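Example record

One chain of 78 residues, shown exactly as stored in the release files.
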Amino acid sequence: MRLLDDMNALKGALRHLRKKAGLSQSELAQLAGLSRTAIQALEDGKDTCKLATLFKVMHVLNLKVYGDHPLLKDEARP
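Predicted structure tokens for this chain:
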């Protein structure tokens, strides 16, 4: 199991897993019920991201997040 501990790692992982699944940004967006620009923003590591958007993408890519993940801890928040 690989843990992602920052947004740079997350954006790289999302792009990699999307490509590994053989999906374009448009295809992933359609499966997740999002716009292609929302997928692009996630992969580009935009400063803001709705948690619901991230979870939709993670669901399509069959990714899990754990409650004790470093990104969910208070110290990781600005």
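Notes: Helices lie at 7-20, 25-32, 36-44, 51-60.
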